[in-house]
Amino acid sequence: MKTMKNNIVVMKQLFSIKYWAAFVSVFVLSLFNSSAAFAGGGGCITIFGIPLCFGGGGAACALGGFAGLGDIICNLIAGTALLPTLLAAVSYLIGLFLVTMAVIKTREHVEDPRQTTISEPVKRFVAGGAFLALPIMTTAVKNSLTGGAAAGGLGTTSGMVSGVPTAGGLDAMLFFLILDIFQPMMALISAFGYLAGIILVMIGISRLLKSAQDGPRGPGGIGTIFTFITAGLLFSIDTIMRAATGSLFGLTSVNSFSVLSTSTGDAAVDGHILSVISSVIGFMVLIGLIAFVRGIFILREVAEGSGQASLMAAMSHIIGGALAVNMGSVINAVQSTFGLSFVTFV
Fold it and tell me: Which of 114, 123, 172, 292 has its CA 20 to 30 A from that of 161?
């Protein structure tokens, strides 16, 4: 009886507002202190001593060189750069709550094993520990699919810069638009993928609390497994896209910039043609990458058992997106098949 009273006193102290207020204050201060690495870190935030990176987002935004829409996109990335820190903080608090509930469930199991099975505290301990170690979990999920390969490198604007049009016109406006937003948009998609990956990892961890009766969304269901796989793909979307490029074309880079194999004889006309073609190909790279990411999400919906998603739609987005990103290589292949040589993409 005395032991029971001591346990009740301890639980009251644990749930005391002043203890939680003190903990949250220290925790938030430690988060702001750890996030200082982002100030000059090229798109990385250190959480609990572990770096979380946007795949080179900060560096990519500096390559446009224009005070235009690209700067707005870069400011958006910079303004939301601490969202992973917020998610880590929420995850840490959820983990503490689950561990506390696991202790309570353990006591209930000891008092009445028939009412509370041993699985109740065990799964709360497992899920709580995973939430407490969210940065480690995200690193593990990412490295499981990519082996820790460095992110970045889908494409640059160096080829476009070398062919800047000298004359004005609609083609020049289109060219400068793509030149301005290309790298910032690549960084934005990479940042979105990283944030979505963190959220999916948290969703996957939360499903450890479910039962086998939940089917695909249960702890060992195919939907839960694909939730973690989707998160790993999104963490390194550019690395995965390079893998798809290598599988389709045997290349490690995206051929995006055009060189006329057959000249018109007029340098000014050739310049206009090249700027239009390069702009269209650059735009297709962005559209293809978005479609590729969408295909990954549809694939997860198929695993979840959603009636509105189909495997054919997922594969169409993934393969079509990979082809659109490599539109230059597709055109090179088509021209080679028909024996043509009007334009070459490098």
Answer: 292
83 CB-near residues (< 8 Å, 6+ apart): 195
Would you state the structure tokens that stand for residue 252, as one six-digit string?
Answer: 């490690």
What is the SS3 assignment for 133? coil
Helix, coil or strand: residue 345: strand
Here the tokens at position 44 are 């990385």
Report the C-alpha gap between 41 and 44 in whole angstroms: 6
For residue 185, give the amino acid letter.
M
* Chain centroid, CA 304 distance in Å: 20
Q: In Å, how far are 100, 120, 130 from 114, measured between CA atoms?
A: 21, 12, 27
Please say whether the beta carbons of 304 and 224 come within 8 A. no
Q: Are 176 and 63 in contact (CB under 8 A)?
A: no
**CA gyration radius for the chain?**
25
Confidence (pTM): 0.76
pLDDT tens, residue by residue, 132-154: 988 888 888 888 877 765 555 55
Minimal CA–CA distance to 175: which of 159, 167, 164? 164
